[in-house]
Amino acid sequence: MVQIKTPEQIAKMREAGLVVAAIHAATREAAVPGATTRDLDEVARKVIADHGAKSNFLGYGGFPATICTSVNEVVVHGIPDDKTVLKDGDIISIDAGAIVDGWHGDAAYTAFVGSGHAPELIELSRVTEESMWAGIAAMRLGARLVDISKAIEGYIKRQPRPAVGDHSLGRYGIIEDYGGHGIGTEMHMDPHLLNYVSRKRGKGPKLVPGLCLAIEPMVSLGTPRTEVLADDWTVITTDGTWSSHWEHSVALTEEGPLVLTAVDGGKAKLAELGVTAAPDPLA
Ligand code: MG
């Protein structure tokens, strides 16, 4: 069953979303060479406490931290620790969430540690982020869930193939083992949102006002396949290629999509794509 929210409930989810946005801002500043992933977790923990919110990651299925820190070939679910020290040239995907009055927010971004990143890494993150926005822009009243999947996959497939200098690497790997999800009174709810179109899945539910989704493409410079390390959490690409992860929680309203975890509600980016974001209920 898909949980449909009232406008008042969406306003609560917006509060949670803004806490997540604050975690993003603080961890982005802290993700510098020499920092450990545990340092970033500590930053996130403090932001949640300062807002009087709760963590939805800590203790989720036994997860031992407040954020996921996924460095380089780690796709998602990396566990912050003391021994992972960020280096110049690394990329890190930070996935964070928060709960306010029982309502959840969840969002992720990829950051560049230090400077001097290869053009293909900058392009990888750009393609992943833009595919997320293409998915968000496809969240229209009357459309179907599959239209979001189609927009994400279509965006990635229309891009020039990744290359190192003149050497083409082949297609981007759209990670298939993980995807987006409904969100509300729990972090992960129905429906599951694929980042590609599967004939087996059908068109999925109709997109109606009150539907809230976490839209989160994960893309690698090589394989779409992943494996989980012995810690039972850390997900890596099977070929060791580096990957990017971007995510926003989005509410569909009568007035269009509201990007709950973006400071401006998605207004600026959606306008570029010809979509009017719903007004911010807290503004
Ligand atoms: Mg998520």
TrEMBL record:
A divalent metal cation 2 binds at D106, H181, E216, E247. Binds 2 divalent metal cations per subunit. Has a high-affinity and a low affinity metal-binding site. The true nature of the physiological cofactor is under debate. The enzyme is active with cobalt, zinc, manganese or divalent iron ions. Most likely, methionine aminopeptidases function as mononuclear Fe(2+)-metalloproteases under physiological conditions, and the catalytically relevant metal-binding site has been assigned to the histidine-containing high-affinity site. Transmembrane segments: none annotated. Substrate binds at H77, H188. GO terms for molecular function: initiator methionyl aminopeptidase activity. Keywords: Aminopeptidase, Hydrolase, Metal-binding, Protease. CDD domains: MetAP1 (cd01086). It holds the Pfam family Peptidase_M24. Its EC number is 3.4.11.18. The keyword Iron-sulfur does not apply. It catalyses: Release of N-terminal amino acids, preferentially methionine, from peptides and arylamides. Its cofactor is Co(2+); Zn(2+); Mn(2+); Fe(2+). A divalent metal cation 1 binds at D95, D106, E247. HAMAP family: MetAP_1. Removes the N-terminal methionine from nascent proteins. The N-terminal methionine is often cleaved when the second residue in the primary sequence is small and uncharged (Met-Ala-, Cys, Gly, Pro, Ser, Thr, or Val). Requires deformylation of the N(alpha)-formylated initiator methionine before it can be hydrolyzed. NCBIfam families: met_pdase_I. This is Methionine aminopeptidase. It comes from Streptomyces roseicoloratus.
